[in-house]
Design goal:
By secondary structure, this protein is α/β, with parallel strands linked by helices. The chain has two domains: 141 residues, D-Maltodextrin-Binding Protein, domain 2 (3-Layer(aba) Sandwich), CATH 3.40.190.10; 92 residues, D-Maltodextrin-Binding Protein, domain 2 (3-Layer(aba) Sandwich), CATH 3.40.190.10. It has eleven helices and ten strands. The strands form two sheets. Strands 2-1-3-10-4 form a five-stranded mixed beta sheet. β1, α2 and β2 form a beta-alpha-beta unit. It is globular and about 55 Å long. The termini are far apart.
């Protein structure tokens, strides 16, 4: 009788042990499955299809398919973390948010400022860049600040926060939109516009490469942050990209890329997460 009870007890323990193993394995499988849920949200499984307005140095430039730049390198590192290939599609900036919202690509990486208006159509990642605008003028211009733009013709890239600033925050006589940042700079150089307002890093990059015919009159603090944009129905992909971005900041890869393109230390607002809190993108 004692022997029967012992056998029954051992059998029960073996069943319990087996259940623990099964539950444990189930947890691992669920975790693995959860981390891969974003795959079902991709246009093409295994590939991150990215919309970007090219060229926009130093963030994205070059010829297809060999694009480079800060955004491009950062996306490639994020994709590597997620075991994805990258396919970049050059697209116009003034339709880029509509395009991603409609599922034409998985995400936008195009020096895109996070704004409440854009957040009505798309979701943004945690911020990855802090920026401001720059006021460009011909050499020797009497325009030295935005207060001097009254009645002036001001160039800006279509659909950008620079264009919005020129329209909403200055007394410009006319704001002329151009398809690219380079075209807005050229408008100042060739006399089509008396000034231009574009992202400061883009203006600084052009100046550092010796492009003549303009000078930066002043930078305009606007408290802007760039983020990657996603369709509203891809929350798992957004979460996965945020996780990979956080890993790259933590392991130093982000700082390496930032130093490569901007010859400076990245701002604490990005590396300590305060930018994400400020923009409300963090969960």
């Amino acid at each position: 009788m004692k022997k029967s009870r012992l056998i029954a007890l051992l059998s029960a323990l073996m069943v319990l042990a087996a259940m623990v193993v099964v539950v444990g394995c189930g947890s691992d499988d669920d975790s693995s499955s959860g981390s891969g849920d974003f795959q079902s949200e991709l246009i093409t499984e295994g590939t991150l299809t990215v919309g970007s307005d090219i060229p926009y140095a130093p963030f994205e430039f070059g010829k297809a398919p060999d694009y480079t730049g800060f955004d491009v390198d950062l996306v490639n590192e994020i994709a590597s973390k997620l075991d994805l290939e990258v396919k970049i599609e050059d697209t116009a900036f003034d339709t880029i948010f509509t395009d991603v919202a409609q599922g034409k690509f998985d995400m936008v990486a195009s020096a895109a400022t996070i704004t409440p208006e854009r957040e009505q159509a798309v979701n943004f990642s945690d911020p990855y860049f802090e920026s401001e605008q720059a006021l460009l003028v011909p050499p020797g211009s009497d325009i030295t600040s935005v207060e001097d733009l009254s009645g002036a013709t001001v160039a800006a890239q279509d659909g950008t926060t620079g264009e919005a600033y020129a329209n909403d925050e200055t007394d410009a006589g006319q704001v002329r939109g151009f398809p690219t940042g380079a075209a807005a700079i050229a408008a100042v150089v060739n006399g089509q516009a008396e000034a231009a307002i574009i992202d400061a890093p883009v203006a600084e990059d052009a100046a550092s490469k010796g492009q003549g015919g303009f000078e930066i009159a002043t930078n305009i603090p606007t408290g802007e942050y760039y983020g990657f944009a996603f369709a509203k129905d891809t929350p798992e992909l957004l979460s996965a990209v945020n996780g990979a971005l956080s890993d790259l900041i933590e392991d130093g890869t982000y700082e390496e890329l930032f130093r490569k393109y901007f010859k400076a230390t990245p701002p604490a607002s990005i590396t300590d997460g305060t930018a994400a809190a400020d923009t409300g993108t963090t969960e």
